[in-house]
Specification:
Elements (H helix, E strand, L loop, with lengths): L20 H43 L22 H4 L74 E3 L6 E3 L14 H12 L5 H10 L6 H27 L3 E12 L7 E11 L4 E7 L5 H6 L5 E5 L14 E5 L1 H9 L6 H23 L4 H27 L7 H11 L1 H4 L13 H17 L5 H19 L4 H11 L22
Parallel strand pairs: 3-6, 6-7
Antiparallel strand pairs: 1-2, 3-4, 4-5
Amino acid sequence: MPDTFKMPIFMPMDSQATVDKTTLESLFFRMNAMESKYEKIIADKDAQVLKLTHELAQLKKMIFGSKSERFVPASLPEQLTMGFEPDAIFPDPRIQQVSYVRKDPFKATVHQGRKPLPAGLLREQIIIQPKADVSGMKKIGEEITEELEYTPGKLFVRQYVRPKYADPKSGGIVCAELPERPITKGIAGPALLSHIVISKFVNHLPIYRQVQQFEREGVSLSASTINDWLTACCNLLQPLYDQMLNAVISTDYIMADETPIKVMDKAKKGTTHRGYHWLYYSPEIRIVYFDYRQGRSREGPREILESFSGFLGTDGYSGYDMFDNNKRITRLCCWAHARRKFDESLQNDQARATLALQQIQQLYQIERTCKENRYSYEQIREIRQQKALPILNTFREWLVQNYSEVLPSSVIGKAIAYTLNLWDKLTVYLQDGKLHIDNNGVENAVRPSAIGKKNYLFAGSHEGAKRAAMLYTFMGSCKMNNINPQEWLTDILERIPSHKANKLKELMPNNWTKPTA
C-alpha cells in the first residue's frame, strides 16, 4: 500500500484560517516523491506488458503464423532516416517503369494451351481405330491426345540363376559367383533399400507406415527387419560418410549450426533425451555434414573442427565463442539472425524496428544484385566496400545512439544489443567475396530434419540418431547439388561394396555422375 498521509483541512477564506508554510512544502515534496514512485511502477508494468505481448505474439506465430521473414516496410510519416535512401544506395534493377494495354473482357481470346508433358516420360500408346470401314482409304495423319497417368511403385523379385556344372576332370563343381550386394545374404536389393531411406529421410514417412504400405502389396516385413537393413546400409556407407567430413573441413569456409532431436534413452524411462544434430556446410563444394552429439556442449564442434582453418559462419550461440581466440579460424556471424531480432521488435517499437529492417534490407539488395549479375569474388568484395560499408557505418552510429534511448530489457533493446555485441563478426563478410551475408544455406539443410522430427517425433536410440545424421548428410548434400537422391543412393549401394577406398570422392554427390543406360 502507498504511504499514507493526513490531508490538511482548508478552511474557508472568511474563517481567517492560516496554513503553515512548512506543512505545505512538506506536502508538496511528498506528493512529488509519490508521483515519481508511481511513474516508475507504471513504466515497469508497461515494460512487462510489452514483453508478455511480444512472447504471446511469437507463440501464436510459431503455431499459426507464416514463417516468412520477408520485410515489406510500412510507410510511417514519423519515420526518420539515416541519410540513405534504398534506391540511392543501389538502384534495384528489377524495378522498371511499365505501361500496359487493358484487355477487352468482351472480346474472345485464344487459349495458349497447357505446357507440354516432358518428352523423357515413358509413353504407352493406345491406338483407337474408327468404327467405320476404312479399307481403301488413305491415312492422312492422326490425332494425338496425351493423358498423364501414374502406376504406384511395385515390388518385384530379381532372381540370380547360376547354373552349376560338374567338371569330370577335377571332379569339382563350377558355378558363377554372386555379384556383391549391399547386404550379404539379405533379400533387399539396392533400389528397395534406397526407397526405404528416401521414404523416411526425404519424404519423412515413419517405418511403421512403410510396413503398412508393403503389407498392401502383399509382402510382410517387420519394422525390426527394416531397421536392421538401415543399420547394414549405414555400416556400408560409413567410409563415404567419413570422406565427406574430410572434404568439408578441408575447405576454408564453413557454415555451422545445430538443431535439437529427441532421443529415447533407456536410462530415462518414460522421457526422452534432448540430443543435437550439429551441421557443417561448405558452400564451396556444396556438401553438408550432420554430426550427432548427446548435448549442446562445445566439445562437438571442437572435435570436428580441430584441424579446420579458415572462415567459420555461425549464429550468436556462445558455444562457438571458443573459436574467437583461435588464430586459424575467423568467425563471422549471420545477418539473418540479427534481422530476425528486429522483425520480432515490430510490435514493441515499430518506428525503430522498421528503420533497422530497411537498412538490413539494403545490405541484402546489394547481395542480390551481385548474385544476379554473377560477379566474381573480387568484384563482390569491391562492391561491398563501396556500397555496403557506408550503410553499415551509419547503421552502427544509429544503433549506439538509440540504445541509450530504449529500455535494455525491451524487445527492441535486446535486438540492438544483440547486433552491437556481434558487430565485428557481422561485418567480416566484407573481407572476402566468397563469404555469405548469412547462414541461410545451412539453415535450409536443417529444415528437412525438422519436418521429419514432427512426423516420427524421436530417434529410437543414440545409435539411431547417429545413423539419422549420416543419412541426412547424404540426402542434404543431394539436395544442395540438385540430384535425385533415389537415383544417387541406388547407384552408390550397387557400387560401393567393390569400390576402391582411395576413390571414394567419386561417389560424393558433388562429384557423382549419373550412370548411362
